[in-house]
Design goal:
Blueprint: H1 4-15, E1 17-19, H2 23-30, H3 32-43, E2 47-50, E3 57-62, H4 67-71, H5 86-108, H6 130-133, E4 137-138, H7 139-146, H8 152-166, E5 169-172, E6 175-178, H9 188-194
Antiparallel strand pairs: 1-3, 2-3, 4-6, 5-6
Helix pairs in contact: 1-3, 2-3, 5-8
C-alpha cells in the first residue's frame, strides 16, 4: 500500500514541481515528522526537497555531496545539467535579477503587484504569494538592454525558448514572467552578492572577482534533457 511519503516523492519525480497549496506539500512544509521522513527517504537517493517561502512551488534537487559523483570531478564537470551555454546562464541570471529580486521586495513589504500604496497593517498579513507579487518584464526591453551582450535576437530567442521549456520562465505575448523553477533553482544567497562579478562578468567583459560563480541547483530528473545542448561553449558559470 502506498503511503503519503511515497506518493509525494513519486509525484515530485513525475511532475518536477508541485504547488505549495497542494495538500501533501502543505503537510510536508508544516509537519516536522512528515518532513523528516521525506528528507530521510530523499537523502538515501542523493536528493533533497527544494522550497522557499517566496516561491509558489517546490521541487527536488541533487544534494551537493552527491553532485561530483554524478557529474564528475568539480574542476571538469559541466556546472549545470540543463544544457545551457554561457550566454544562456547569463540570460537566466538577468531574468532572475529583473523578475525575482523586485518580487521578493514586494513580498517582504507585503505589497501586491497592483497595490498603489501600503496598508498600515500589511506586515500583519501572511507573505503574499508569488503569483500575486511577481511582475513580468518586456521582451522588447530585454532585447534592447541586453541583446548585444547576449548573442542578439536569434541567440536570445533560442535561450528564452530553452528556459521556457525547462520551467524557468513563461512567455505571455511580449511579457516574460516567472516560471515555477526561477525562484527555486537559483541559489539566492550566492547570486545576490555575485550577480555582476559572477555569471555576468564574461558577458559584460568585467574582471572576475576571486569568488566562486553563482550556483544553479542540479535538477533531479531527466527533465533537464528537454534542453538540447548548443554548439556554444559548455564551460558555463554555475
Amino acid at each position: 500500500m502506498n503511503d503519503d511519503s511515497q506518493i509525494l516523492i513519486a509525484r515530485l519525480l513525475t511532475h518536477q514541481t508541485l504547488r505549495r497549496d497542494d495538500k501533501l506539500v502543505k503537510r510536508v512544509l508544516s509537519d516536522e515528522l512528515f518532513r523528516a521522513e521525506i528528507d530521510a527517504r530523499l537523502l538515501a537517493c542523493g536528493l533533497k526537497l527544494l522550497d522557499n517561502v517566496y516561491a509558489d512551488h517546490v521541487t527536488l534537487a541533487l544534494t551537493r555531496a552527491i553532485e561530483p559523483k554524478i557529474f564528475g570531478a568539480r574542476d571538469v564537470w559541466q556546472n549545470n545539467n540543463f544544457g545551457l551555454a554561457r550566454d544562456g546562464v547569463a540570460l537566466l541570471v538577468v531574468l532572475w535579477a529583473q523578475i525575482i529580486l523586485p518580487k521578493r521586495e514586494r513580498q517582504e513589504t507585503h505589497q501586491h503587484a497592483e497595490d498603489d500604496q501600503n496598508d498600515m497593517f500589511d506586515k500583519d498579513k501572511p507573505l503574499p504569494r508569488a503569483e500575486d507579487t511577481s511582475i513580468g518584464i518586456s521582451y522588447k526591453a530585454l532585447l534592447s538592454d541586453f541583446g548585444d551582450k547576449l548573442g542578439k535576437k536569434t541567440r536570445m530567442d533560442m535561450n528564452l525558448g530553452t528556459l521556457a521549456k525547462l520551467g524557468f520562465i513563461e512567455r505571455r505575448g511580449d511579457v516574460l514572467v516567472e516560471g515555477p523553477l526561477l525562484d527555486l533553482m537559483m541559489d539566492t544567497d550566492v547570486l545576490k552578492e555575485r550577480i555582476i562579478n559572477g555569471a555576468l562578468a564574461d558577458v559584460f567583459k568585467r574582471p572576475l572577482a576571486p569568488v566562486a560563480p553563482p550556483v544553479v541547483y542540479e535538477l533531479h530528473s531527466d527533465a533537464a534533457e528537454a534542453a538540447e545542448p548548443s554548439d556554444a561553449p559548455t564551460d558555463t558559470p554555475n
